[in-house]
Amino acid sequence: MLSRNEIKEALTRWNRAWDQHDLDGIMELFHEDILFENWTGAKVRGKQALHQAWKPWFENHRGFRFIGEDIFMDELEQKVLYQWVLEWPSNEKGYEGKPERRRGLMSFISATARSSAKTLTRRPPLRSRRKG
Question: Which of 46, 64, 90, 114 would bridge with 95, disulfide CB 3.0–4.6 Å?
Fold first, then answer.
C-alpha cells in the first residue's frame, strides 16, 4: 500500500515525465497490466500496448504541457483523481501553431487495488477558440 507521501512523489514524477515529454519515464509509473481508458472510449490493456499506442502521439506532437489544477487522494482506497489542463500548439486546419487548451480529469488506481488509469476530457467547442 502506498502512503500519501509516496502517492505525491509518484504524481511529481508523473508531471516531470510529461513536462520532459519522456514516454519511457511515464511508462515506468504504470503496472504491467494497466488498463487505460481514453475519453474517446478506446481501451488499451498492458504496459507495452499502451507504450505502442502513445508512441506516435509523442513523436508527432511537440510543445504540449499539462498543468495540474486539482488533486484528490484517497490513501485508504489507493485512488487519485487528478484534474488538468493540456496546452499545446494546435495542428487543426486554420489554427496551426495557435494555442489550444483541453481540460480533463484522470483517475489512477494503484496496483494494490486495481491497475487502471482513465482519462475523462472534453474539447472546448470550436467557437470558443478564436482565430487571431
Answer: 90
